[in-house]
Design a protein that fits this description.
By secondary structure, this protein is mainly α. The protein is built from 5 helices and no strands.
């Protein structure tokens, strides 16, 4: 009687890789060996881009704040410095959202930053 060597574990491992490769193009979704490479590479990109997404959003928020502040005759770095001197502790995401959705509140924030710079 032949001996069973790693039957279901092997099948399960390959099935798991092919399930992760669903939606890939051509043999990358059909053949285990190429699917394994494609899944490994996709996971590397996913790991890297989870870190990059945070940087990209911060850059976006800074660009939006900078555009909003320039309308009030200030630049971004002096605005942030003025907020720090005034003791305002809002993150860039919140300030960016305020610049888009609530211009009056953002204008008040700019005045707060200007007064913070004026006091020092």
């Amino acid at each position: 009687m032949p001996r069973a060597v790693d039957g279901t574990r092997r099948k399960d491992r390959r099935k798991k890789i092919l399930n992760q490769a669903k939606g890939y193009w051509g043999r990358r979704s059909k053949l285990t060996r190429t699917a394994k490479d494609a899944v490994r590479k996709a996971n590397q990109y996913a790991y890297r881009d989870r870190k990059a997404r945070k940087r990209e959003f911060r850059r976006l928020w800074i660009a939006r704040i900078s555009a909003g502040v320039q309308e009030h005759g200030m630049n971004y770095s002096r605005f942030i410095h003025g907020l720090q001197l005034a003791g305002v502790e809002l993150n860039r995401k919140t300030i960016s959202n305020m610049a888009i959705e609530d211009p009056k509140a953002f204008e008040a924030l700019v005045q707060t930053a200007k007064s913070g710079l004026g006091n020092n």
